[in-house]
Amino acid sequence: MESIKSGFYQTFILDNNYQYFIRGIGITLLVTVFALVLGLALGVLVAIIRSAHDQQPKNKRGIILRVLNLLCKVYLTVIRGTPMMVQLLIMWFVVWASSRATDGNMVRCAVLSFGINSGAYVAEIVRSGIMSIDKGQMEAGRSLGLSYVKTMRFIIIPQAFKNVLPALGNELITLLKETSIVTVIGLKDLTKGAMIIAANTYQALVPYVAIAAIYLAMVMLLTWLLGIMERRLRKSDIR
């Protein structure tokens, strides 16, 4: 009991170590939110290109659409076929090799790496949602005079979003937890903060149990918020 009390004191009170957790949570959420925005934008774009290619008859697929679809397939194959940590290391030590090792550069590198990685998984999730929508929806939109882009924006994507919301929620939760590997490039996120405290105090139990509890709390909060969103969308369907 005394060792736990001592560990708690050294982890949170001594030298204001709690600030490592506060700053770490901020960095973790910052990377997660911006990576999610980038991943959603990239994923939806890739999903639209892939679904447009698949839905068009072979004789009506233009050369531009074929090239874009090929690029998307290469992107999906490479990103989903290599580990996230390897992608992060390449991004930092190769692509960003000439940049200074500052927190700002590390955050931008992490956001770009996680956003590109998440985009590949979001693309397949959204594409499955788009393909699940009846073809008559697209035909109805076009018959009303809407362009392909407007039909996708106002008719297809909203319906597809409802269908894939649980899968997108799981991707968000996975992304939040995966950000812990940014420690490999030296970014002081939540996990790195616990590692610094453990190294300074020689107390590993309390810091690591603390970050596990913090991650769990954030995941539970996200799950609760996603549940509220799903229930509201179901109510709108009933109406």
Keywords:
239 residues, mainly alpha, 9 helices
Short structural summary:
By secondary structure, this protein is an all-alpha fold. Helix content is 82%, strand content 0%. The radius of gyration is 22 Å and the shape is elongated.
Given helix and strand content, the structural type is: mainly alpha
Spatial gap, N to C terminus = 56 Å
Overall pLDDT level: 88
So what's the overall shape? elongated
Question: Any low-confidence stretches, pLDDT <50, length ≥5?
Answer: none
Note the run of SSEs as H and E: HHHHHHHHH
Q: What's the total number of strands?
A: 0
**Helical stretch tally:** 9
The percent range for strand residues is: under 5%
What proportion of the residues is helical, as a percent range?
over 70%
User: C-alpha Rg, in Å?
Assistant: 22 Å
Largest sheet: none
